[in-house]
Amino acid sequence: MNPVQIKSRILHGDAIAKLKTLPASVAQVIIADPPYFNVLENEDWDTQWKTATHYVAWCEAWAAEAMRVLRPDGLCFIFGQLGKREHTFLHLMSRLTHQHQFHDLIIWDRAVGYNERRDSFTPQYEMVLVLRKSDDVKFNKEAVRIPYDAKTIESYMRDPRYKNKATRREHLEAGKFATNVLRVPSLKGASKEKCGHPSQKPIDLIEKLILCSTDVGDLVVDPFLGSGTTAAAAKKLKRKWLGIEKDSKYIRIAKSRLTNQLSNKKSTKP
């Protein structure tokens, strides 16, 4: 099946089972934010595995299907986190990078800490393991430049080492290239973006991942759609998307969010 023929939609069901129904090599990018395993201890979906070994085996299974669905020049982004208690992702990264090609490790700097701890540093970051299928991947770092403010631009323009001032200004006004440390503030309870999922990611963060790895019309697949952030970002950026979600409650939230996004877009037209 050609990606152009795929209709953007939510697939209700188990991630592994639904991934198995998709053709091979159709997704330009996979964005996976799976359960982290015993991090959100009040959520059944995060505590369903008896041991870390069972959890890692499950992750290996869905990751294998996700990589099958991925195009040869695509990228697979997998969220996780480390901490004194949340160290299973360390073992998972080791396993996955033995089974698939490693591309990068992104640090999501949440800007503020969370879950204050008595005997260790306050966690402030999560991680995104990036896998690929070949050395030839689609990647556009121009799409995620970070703007300089006007004061900084004028300061850099005074640097006497640069003789071609016009070229220097053009470069500065385009912004600096992003590093693999992405500083995007996490969502707080009062955030207008927050819509009912305990591990919801900021849309700005997901947009950066989509922009750097896809073109307009490419297919984005999210095996754990949750509240629909990946779908909302892909829709905004004119990418096709497929989201898989097991929980009916989150499907309702995602659908409502996408409907509101469409309504807001119509209301802003002149």
TrEMBL record:
Keywords: Methyltransferase, Transferase. One of its GO terms (biological process) is methylation. Residues 28-255 form the DNA methylase N-4/N-6 domain. SUPFAM superfamilies: S-adenosyl-L-methionine-dependent methyltransferases. Pfam families: N6_N4_Mtase. InterPro entries: DNA_methylase_N4/N6, DNA_methylase_N6_adenine_CS, RM_Methyltransferase, SAM-dependent_MTases_sf. Coiled coil: none annotated. GO terms for molecular function: DNA binding; N-methyltransferase activity; site-specific DNA-methyltransferase (adenine-specific) activity. Its EC number is 2.1.1.-. One of its GO terms (cellular component) is cytoplasm. Belongs to the N(4)/N(6)-methyltransferase family. This is Methyltransferase.
